[in-house]
Design goal:
By secondary structure, the protein is of the alpha/beta class. The protein has 13 helices and 21 strands. The chain has a 5-stranded parallel sheet with strand order 3-2-1-7-19, with helices on one face. A 5-stranded parallel sheet has the order 8-17-9-10-13, with helices on one face. A 4-stranded mixed sheet has the order 6-5-4-18, with no helix packed on it. The longest helix has 23 residues. The chain is globular. The structure holds NADP nicotinamide-adenine-dinucleotide phosphate (NAP).
Amino acid sequence: MNQTPLRKPSIAIIGAGMTGILLCIKLQKLGIEDVTILEKKDDLGGTWRENTYPGVACDIPAHMYTYSFEPNPEWSYRFARGNEIQTYFKKVSDKYQVTPKIRFGEAVVNCKYQDGKWNIKTSKNKSLMVDFVISATGILHHPAKPEIPGLSSFKGKCFHTAEWDHKVDLKGKRIGVIGTGSTAAQVIPEMIKIGGKVSVFQRTPQWIVNVPDKHYSEKDRAKWRKNPSITKRLHDWYTIAVEQTFSKAVIGKKLPHALMSFLCKRNLKNSIKDPVLRAKLTPNYRVGCKRVIVNSTFYEAIQKPNADLVTESIEKITAKGVVTKDGKLHELDVLILATGFHPFNFMRPMNLTGKNGVKIDQVWSKKIQAYRSMFIPGFPNFVLMLGPNTPIGNFSVIAMSEVQANYLMKIIQDWQLKKFDEIDATPDAFKNFNAYLKAGMGKTVWLGGCNSWYLDSDGDPAMWPYTWSQWEKEMKSPDYKDFAIKNL
Ligand code: NAP
């Protein structure tokens, strides 16, 4: 029987982080070799290449924070340190022959759809023409620096946590940290260990759940190396545990939310003895409204004699340090900005131009949305990984990328079968999907009386408001009714 050979698309992936590596592996599995990964930096790893601050670790259990097909017996802690995660991604990238496909130090500057192809221009002034572009740039990769008057006049050293200056000697120094989010909670205990006086500038207190870390011995690792089914079981066990507790709590399921609230409140009460300090650290919004911090060191550290929790708001920064509204100057040698990221840039600042010259900045000028978090009408054959409204606030980002990648591979396979040349989400599907999301938001805790990076400029959470299993179910396969598909 004569079988038409499958077409082989050319594909550009933007970004060589966890998602870019995963996509390349999946595409190679389909026999697609014409894959180019354009990576703006000189190394792979995304978040884990960028964030090298002292204390950097993943607050999702390590055995869960792996690709499902590549368990890792080598983790040395329950919450893997940043450098171990970076090593893991490098190892996987080499093992699956992804590394040779990466063009390092080459950012995408322009990306334009023309005559059924995407034309790419890079920062090295090179051009590329491909059938599909997949943006795998991640979410939290544009550091947000606070607009505090006088910041640039500070004469000491000042840097953002994602741009850590390892040349700065912190020993015995007067260190200021602005911010008390997930990053700050990891970095502050390390600063308190090494620094002289450490001033922590807190604008809003955070809920913290204490899940103790655990060191894995060489004996544990030898056991896992010998029997990989144990690591697989650990992966599955942690996945179920997070899904049944944290993931359900944030979308407003009563019992898991009550449990999470109880654990956070008990942690605060049991950990902070001084009632004045405890009051300062007590949030006035629902548990989970901001990302719950998973941490077992912050509360102990903030009670050390060289730690100072400053809750008076910041008025300005001068050459000598931070001045708070009460007129007090907090003199500093080093100022660390643990002030988070701009979460709505996605693949930008690159210029993205879709059909009929439509620009992404126009389409997203009012609201940043996508169909199924992946497709934007008018931008055919352009796929956004981990776009707006994934379950990013509820689950492991690796599991999310795997679900999206599997969904996308079905589309690519249909393209290979020549079912279409061009695929574009319809404006109706886009509208209906976003209305469906909005309808689910009311019950979630993200609208629980706080401000957070989850919220867009209208105050809508850019999150998935339903269960993880619902998301997996809806992402099983594409519904072609929601797409305009065409043979050109
Ligand atoms: P974040 O959660 O956005 O926290 C930023 C902190 O900076 C907040 O405390 C914020 O205060 C404060 N801040 C911002 N601008 C300020 C200003 N002008 N003046 C005073 N304070 C200011 O950022 P993040 O800690 O980097 O974490 C971001 C996300 O990264 C997390 O939610 C998490 O999803 C992820 N993360 C994960 C891990 C992990 O282990 N997997 C580790 C780190 C980060 P307000 O609260 O008042 O806004």
